[in-house]
Design brief:
398 residues; alpha/beta; Urease, subunit C, domain 1; TIM Barrel; 2 domains; 27% helix; globular; binds zinc ion
């Protein structure tokens, strides 16, 4: 399938070092981006679907790097079906599992956590609710797992590992497990802050510095923050990715954003929601956190977008999150919300408003065009300009 977006007002690349791309057109073919910026008339005319962006802003599909996946499009924690499709209507085109810890009766023995991670990875390998891409299967690091166990599941396709919910006496015990998971080639993540559920202990700067995961999960607290003095140590003394989550402490999110920018560590600053959890289901969570850091921590709005897209992709080694030729074709059109005081999406984010979503394209396929069922309406009209396939993208069924 070939899809084009024309008449784009601003293109945000997702790459924080070079956050804008000149031009007004994006062409996608067979799930990949063919060109960004300009395209010849023939390249656009040969498309199955052409979307008129109406002068709105194109950004890479948002990546939520902290989603509590279980199985199917269902969250046992909030007893709700269809939440992932709802997240797509919040502009999230990629969801990364924070481990399948919410599966009812989840196992804690070595064979059990291996089987759980592998089953989750397989169940979402080709299943895309509403069009969202889900990277599931994050093995819960438990005492008793060996390096051979981790190598075995890594060979079978599991590439995420989570420290924080194992039956350890102290979090320092995660050190050898995280090291073994890294050796097996996995991206390792570690709970940070006060305990999130009864039975798990607080994890603070001393633990993070000793264990050295790739990602400090919800460094701002999930939902309870670690001591303020520990943020500067993790920012300045390590190269660990600094993940802030919507369902956490907002004050320390802003503290961490300022520290990361001042320390030249902005490329490690990434955004997730840490939902669905006790805090609820938050389809617009990434949009809120982008608006919070842009409006309250004086981060440029395009840099807030990069933290939720290209920077997440780099940390998690994904081939999306950046609008460039050859990348996976995940594109979102955003605009100033109708009836607000601002005229562009980036100005609205800077102002503290969440952006309105006008269209979501994943794997080069339009999932809806015109309006999201979850955000306010866009100010400018996004519409299908031409369509050669028998499908209605208007989403009027919502
Ligand atoms: Zn979490």
């Amino acid at each position: 399938m070939r899809t084009a977006i024309v008449n784009i007002g601003t293109i945000v690349s997702g790459n924080w070092k070079s956050p804008f791309v000149a031009g007004d057109t994006i062409v996608m073919a067979d799930g990949r981006i063919e060109s960004v910026g300009t395209a010849g008339a023939a390249a656009v005319e040969s498309c199955d679907v052409v979307i008129d962006a109406g002068g709105t802003t194109a950004i890479p599909g948002l990546i939520d790097s902290h989603v509590h996946i279980t199985f199917g499009d269902y969250t046992p924690r909030q007893r709700t079906v269809g939440y992932l499709e709802s997240y797509l209507h919040g502009g999230i085109t990629t969801a990364i599992s924070a481990s399948e810890v919410h599966v009812p009766g989840r196992p804690s023995d070595a064979e059990g956590v291996k089987a759980l991670a592998l089953a989750a990875q397989r169940c979402f390998a080709a299943y895309r609710p509403g069009g969202i891409r889900v990277h599931a299967g994050s093995i819960i690091l438990e005492p008793g797992l060996t390096g051979d166990d981790l190598t075995e599941v890594a060979r079978k396709g599991v590439w995420l590992a989570k420290a924080g919910f194992g039956a350890v006496a102290t979090a320092f015990e995660y050190g050898p497990l995280v090291a073994a998971a890294k050796t097996a080639g996995m991206v390792t993540t570690m709970h940070t802050g006060g305990s999130s559920i009864p039975g798990s202990g607080a994890i603070t700067g001393d633990h993070i510095l000793a264990v050295r995961p790739d990602v400090s999960f919800h460094i701002n607290g999930g939902p309870t923050a670690m001591p303020d003095r520990d943020f500067e140590r993790v920012v300045r003394e390590t190269d660990i990715a600094l993940q802030v989550c919507t369902a956490g402490n907002l004050r320390t999110t802003l503290l961490c954003a300022r520290l990361a920018r001042e320390a030249g560590a902005w490329d490690r600053f990434i955004i997730g929601t840490d939902t669905p959890t006790g805090s609820g289901i938050m389809p617009l969570g990434i949009l809120y956190t982008m608006a919070h850091i842009a409006s309250l921590a004086d981060i440029a709005p395009e840099q807030a977008v990069c933290a939720a897209t290209g920077s997440n992709a780099r940390v998690y080694r994904l081939d999306t999150g950046v609008l460039a030729a050859g990348k996976e074709a995940d594109v979102v059109l955003i605009d100033a919300p109708d009836g607000g005081t601002q005229t562009t999406a980036l100005a609205a984010i800077k102002h503290g408003d969440i952006a309105a979503i006008g269209a979501v394209v994943t794997a080069g396929v339009p999932r809806f065009v015109g309006r999201s069922r979850n955000t306010p309406a866009t100010t400018a009209k996004v519409r299908v300009a031409s369509c050669r396939i028998p499908q209605d993208f208007s989403g009027t069924g919502h």
